[in-house]
Amino acid sequence: MLRLSPLKCWAPTSLLYSRFPRLPFRGSESLDKVHGIIFRYKTSGKIPFYGAARDTRPTGLFSLSPLQRISVAVHSATTALADPSRADAVAALGEVTGHMALYAMYDKMMLDPTGQRILRDRPIVDSKIIDLNALLKSDEGTFGHVYAKFMQSHGFDPDERSNVRFISDPELSYIMLRYGSATIFGMLPPTVLGELALKWVELLQTGLPVAALSATVGSLRLSLRERDILHNIYLPWAVQVGKNSTFLMNTYYEGEFETNIHVLRERIGIEPAPDVENWLG
Predict the structure, then answer these.
(1) Cα-to-chain-centroid distance, residue 18
(2) d(CA 88, CA 94)
(3) If phi over 0 gives left and psi between -120 and 50 gives alpha, with beta otherwise, what is residue 207?
(4) pTM for the full model?
(5) CB 119 within 8 A of CB 171
C-alpha cells in the first residue's frame, strides 16, 4: 500500500455562528488585550508551561490579490492531485481556500474556554515542548506514551510541518498552523486509507475545502478493495467521530500527555479507528 507523509490538516461542514468582533492584532499585543471581555475569566497572567506564546505571524507572503490566490490554488491543487504526498502543496491549497472555514473555526474556539486558552497561549507542536524520549518513559496507556510510540514507530518528527505562508491574519494563521500540527494526534496509520479516513473526520469537523478535495478525489487512487473498506468501515467511523465528538481543535493536547488514552477518548468522544489489517490481507 502506498505510504504517505502525514498531511497537515483538520477539516468539515461548519455551522453558522455569531462572529465576535475581530480587532486589529499588532505585534506584541496579547489576545487577552484584544479580546479582553472574552478572556476575562481565563486570563491569569501566568506564562504557559512551555514558555511564553511565540509569534506565529506568517514569515513568507503576507497577502495575495484575488488573481494570485486563484493562481496559487490551481497550482497547489494540480500538484497535490498529481502527488498526494506533497504536504506543502496541500497546505498551500488549504491556506488560500479556507478563510471562511477558518473564521468559523475561530468562532468555535472563542465559544469554548479551552479554545480561548489555546488561542491565548498559542502552543506550537514541536520538539521544543514535546520530548518524545521522556514520553516514551512515561506510564504505558497514557496519551503521551501512546503518542510517542506512534511517532517513533513511523519515524515521524513533530518539527515536520509546512509553515503558513498565505494567511496574513495572525489569528487565522495560528489556527491553520494548529490545525496542521494537531493532525498527527489523530494517530491513524500513515497510509492512503488512514489519511482519507482522517480527512473525512476533518471535513465533518471544520469545513475546510482542502479536506473535501482530499476526501473525495483521494479515493480515486484506491483499489476496489480499498474503496470498499473506506466506504463500509472507515467512512461510517469517520462520520460518527466527526459528528459526535467535541470540536477537536478545542483539545489542549499538550496538557493531556499524562491522561489515560481511554479516558481522553471518552471525554472528547472519539471511538478508536477500526482495525482493517485483516480486511486488507
Answers:
(1) 23
(2) 10
(3) left
(4) 0.73
(5) yes
